[in-house]
Amino acid sequence: MNSLPTPDHPQPQSLSDLFISFTLLALQGFGGVLAVVQRELVEKKRWMTREEFIDDWAVAQIMPGPNVINLSMMVGSRYFGLKGALAALAGMLTVPLMLVLLLALVYAEFAGHPGVAGALRGMSAVAAGLIAATGLKLFGALLKNALGLRLCVAFGALCFVAIALLRWPLFYVLFGLGSLACVLAFRKLAP
Predict the structure, then answer these.
(1) End residue of a domain, out of 142, 166, 182
(2) What 3-state class would DSSP assign to 120?
(3) Is the pTM higher than 0.85?
(4) Is residue 68 within 8 Å of residue 37, measured between CB atoms?
(5) Nearest Cα to Cα of residue 36 among 127, 115, 140
(6) Are residues 109 and 59 in the same domain?
(7) What residue numbers bound the domain in which 100 lies?
(8) Of 5, 28, 41, 71, which residue is 20 to 30 A from 77 by alpha carbon distance?
């Protein structure tokens, strides 16, 4: 995990600010939150740089549990320690959990309606587009990566082939390619 950001970095003003910010973030994330999280934490609030976001998102992805929950706890911990991690976690879960339970009751009533099924299929296309757009937006940060742009693109392509085309389990791909990338980065960064 990165150390505290430089003083010119904006940061959450209090535990309440952290809680409210992550609650609002969670309420925006339908189907895939990568685009929303990146926009809010990097572009709007500027609590993180693009490079910090990519580094922390990579760590959040390999940890067990939902990526955005892991990231929220990392950000909360960075600014306020354990209390910050718990405030960010509560912000990510409390109000959204209540809404999901309410929506589950509504869905149970109308699940058989053809319009509901069509709406869900349409939303999946939008979620895929959001993920692709965020990937393209963050691509520039790879220029500063220790592995270099070519190797990062190669790892991305190998990951895509392994998961999308060969249908290998995500765990094995992350463990295999992730371990190799970590070793290569460590070698390049070692004095």
Answers:
(1) 142
(2) helix
(3) no
(4) yes
(5) 127
(6) yes
(7) 15-142
(8) 28
